[in-house]
Amino acid sequence: MSTTRTLLAAAAVAAGALALAPAGAQAAATATTATSAACDPSLVAPEGSLVGGLWRSNGGRTSVYGCPVTKEYGYPDKQGSWQRFQNGKIVWSPNLGGGTLLRVFKKDRTMVFKWSGLGRDWDFFNVRWSKDPHLGNKTTQVKVKRLTPWSGQFLISANPRVDFDDTVSHGRATDTWHFSVQGCDRGTFSSDCGPWGIPVVYKY
Question: Which end of the chain has fewer CB atoms < 10 Å from its terminal CB, N or C?
């Protein structure tokens, strides 16, 4: 009887503490759980991860990326990390700035390449892209206007005209996209550009 009363008292105290918790904190905890509720918890990047933070802020499992299909991995030869998702990929590229995040995802019939958090402001950006370069397709460089001095985006048809197309893997056609970006300033006679970010390679 004494043990039963003790357990009931403890439960009542816990319930009271929950009721007294700030509504905002409860809502935040609920929102965080909801963003990854249907995803494999072993693949969700931990709190503090820039990649995971971007994924969560965009809606987690309901975002354009969907659930993660790999863990967040670092690179063996440089600082940075990457993670694959059902519909895209996010890369942390600190050589462009400590908070720089690059990402690619497919939206309808368009490939979307975005970047943000660059360590300094730029006048414009250069983007290099290629589709199935391993088949012999060329890499194309384009000049892109900035969205802000620290961010931008590049959109291209998911089916651009290329010399070689359709890699077949496990009975289905797959495409491999390569994207990279660098920031540039306008000069009197030429442009002054920074380093290229870590290439974002996305296969689907």
Answer: N
67, 9: one domain: no
The residue segments making up the domain with residue 66 are 40-203
Q: Which of 193, 187, 186 is nearest to 126 (CA)?
A: 193
What is the residue whose two structure tokens read 């920031």? 183
The first and second tokens of residue 28, run together, are 């935040």
Give the Å distances, CA to CA, from 115 to 1, 99, 112, 150. 63, 10, 10, 8
- Contact call for residues 68 and 56 (beta carbons, < 8 A): no
Amino acid identity of residue 167, one-letter, is: T
Per-residue pLDDT for the chain (204 aa), expressed as one digit of tens each? Answer: 444 443 334 443 333 433 333 444 444 444 445 556 689 999 999 999 999 999 999 999 999 999 999 999 999 999 999 999 999 999 999 999 999 999 999 999 999 999 999 989 999 999 999 999 988 999 999 999 999 999 999 999 998 888 777 665 555 668 899 999 999 998 766 779 999 999 999 998
Residue in the block written with tokens 């004494």 = 2
Three-state secondary-structure class, residue 112 = strand
* Residue that has been written with the tokens 């690059």 in this structure: 102
Residues 71, 148 within the same domain? yes
